[in-house]
Amino acid sequence: MMQSILFIGAGRMAESIIAGLYRKNGGNLENVFISNRNDSNRLEFLVEKYEVKMVADWKEIINEVEVIVLAIPPDQHPIILEQMNLLITNQFIVTIAAGIGPTFLETYLPEKTPVAWMMPNTAAEVGHSMTLFTYGNHVKVQHEQTMEFLLNAIGHSHYCSENDIHLLTAITGSAPAFLYLFVEAIIDTTEQLGVSRKVASELVSEMVYGSIEMLKTGQEPQELRSQVTTPGGATAEGIKVLKEGGFEELLKKAVLATNKKAKGENE
Description:
It catalyses: L-proline + NADP(+) = (S)-1-pyrroline-5-carboxylate + NADPH + 2 H(+); L-proline + NAD(+) = (S)-1-pyrroline-5-carboxylate + NADH + 2 H(+). By secondary structure, the chain is α/β, with parallel strands linked by helices. It folds into two domains: about 5-160, NAD(P)-binding Rossmann-like Domain (Rossmann fold); about 170-265, ProC C-terminal domain-like fold. The protein is about 55% helix and about 15% strand. Strands 3-2-1-4-5-6-7-8 form an eight-stranded mixed beta sheet, with helices on both faces. Helix 2 (about 40-50) links the parallel strand 2 and strand 3. The mean pLDDT is about 90.
């Protein structure tokens, strides 16, 4: 039986994880509770869609759950953790916030509290997140099993050190947005060529999907790019424009800027 879980926060990422749990458990989420401070309409939506249980004040339910997932922005963690410090009785605390690692959690919570950090992306909603995760100093086998259950519900995962997650947040968590921006630009350009938005979206989405399937064969991106790029041909001309415009360097800068922001959000 799935352990009882309390989600504090009801945003998109919380919903993505709940959706994964919903699929994994055949729609049975009777042990899942959710609380959201400012948006009752959002809670009602999630209750109706996933049949989770709505909680007006998470403090009222905290002693009835075994796992607490903090699905709140980084800057809200200190006040929630301070309130939680006086109430928890060795529950397993998991955060999904950028920049909030186990060291941060353990600073605010009672000594020997089991904690963990997982960084999924929104592909969790369709079971294809690439989630980074790590543990605090007091996690036991049962907590690792709980974490495995959560991770398997939303896709693939990779165990990292706390520092590695700080460094890789931009890759697994934020880089999908970079990809979506690329796709958006290609769709817009296709539409400008006289194709309907619907057809443009279908063409570009399938192109991206096929490209990802090719990457999953294990071939190097450079090799795949070379297969498409005939020297002196049309694709080569497009690649030349991207390189001259600093495409690769801009992506590197975007990754570094994302990591810098993620590290500074809880300072």
